[in-house]
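Customer ticket, subject: "Can you confirm the structure for nicotinate phosphoribosyltransferase?"

Message body: Hello, I'm evaluating your service for our small team and ran a test protein. I'd like someone to confirm that this is what the system normally returns, since I don't have a reference to compare against.
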Amino acid sequence: MDEHIITSLLHEGAPIDNFGIGERLITSASAPVLSGVYKLAATESNGQSTPKIKVSASREKLTILGDKQVYRLYEPRTQRAFADLIALATETIVDATSLTVVTSDPLSVDRQQRLTHFEARPLLAPVDLSNTTSIPVTTIQATTQAKLAELPRTTQRLVNPDLYPVYMTTTLSQLQTSLLNKMTILAD
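Agent reply: Thanks for trying us out. I re-ran your input and got the following:
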């Protein structure tokens, strides 16, 4: 079984509660190895956070550095989500009539764009790991499903999904470029 078979069965109304998936869960025909990469985005010392970057010859492999907050952007009239925005945790994004952002797609030709008239809601919430009470898995699942449901249905297709725009603030983009330039100078 894979995601295509499961989707087909569910769309046909198959009365299935659980799926048992073995190697297809962690591998695919196009990439038969589970490739996970940990990228350090920041270090903390004495309460001070220092952004870190992974330098690569390939722009798409650069780290989106620092402590971040992700905002979902909504059209005020329809309340439909139209993009996500990655910001530094120290930046506060509020409802805006106009904001210049940078596309997070490293292959984009025109990286800067201007967004107008939107409402911004943060997606990340801090978790106190020292707190012994835990959030029930069902609450996490419900929140995740609600956030996924906000995305346009056309972006949720398994085959040929529409792209959902993800932007960075200009401050985050400038910090990334600044650290990249600093690392490039040190390498020369």
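A couple of notes from the result: The longest strand covers residues 112-122. DSSP finds four helices and seven strands in the chain. Feel free to reply with more questions.
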